[in-house]
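Researcher: Can you fold this with zinc ion in place?
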Amino acid sequence: MGIFDKPRLRPVEKRDDMPEGMWSKCPSCDAMLHQLDLIQNLNVCPSCSHHLLLGSRERIASLADPGSFRELDADLVSANPLGFAKYPEKIEQLRATTDLNDAVLTGMLTIDGNPAVIAVMDFKFFAGSMGSVVGEKITRAIEKATAEKCGVIIISASSGARMQEGMLSLMQMAKTCGALALHSEAKLPYISVMTHPTTGGVTASFATIGDVNLAEPKCMIGFAGPRVVKETTHQNLPPGFQTAEFMLDHGLVDAIVSRKDLRTKLGKLLAFMQGGVQ
Ligand SMILES: [Zn+2]
């Protein structure tokens, strides 16, 4: 009986063969992104080039010459020096779900044949907060670079100091910068790469004192959040406040580098500042 016999349209049922978690939405342009596309594109949106968070292991895999990465201090684990309630349980849970022991991975590698020590923060572990393990691993990485007479690269992604460790977190700011001062006195290069977000005690210590300060496009770089700054200063904030582009215009950042170009950029900078491949 013509079109009147056609079955009614039904809501699309959930398909059993579509695995959970394969699709996500770009927070910038709302495009639907397939997990495989994201992995191949280093977690950068193919539609609008928005840089999503990238894990530390994936970051190192994208930068290191194949087989060159040697991890340092992999087994350091946080204690609970203040007896902060539920802190050990939270750490244990994060260790189980992230396959990381804390919010930074450190190690030695070569990039286009140029040796360096690298520290890569990982936001998915406790929002990349810097407690005593993060500070200690970064300090040891810098000291290793000084001993090996090579450059150090620190890639930041952090909400700042870890309040659960109180003053022991804050002292990591001075400790990491002290190690960088000795590295600098040895006339060795330090390249800082700021990624989204670089904030708090990390911004106020090692992340912004590189010989060269690089940043990923549109990442947030700041100390306190914009709402706190606005309420404290009672002033309206300028457009683009606390973005990498704003920091480039105001001299805090030397260059903005897309994720796909970072490996080439770091290789050239290391070659230039260390006198080429040794
Ligand atoms: Zn997008």
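Model: Folded with zinc ion in place. Residues 166-185 form the longest helix (20 residues).
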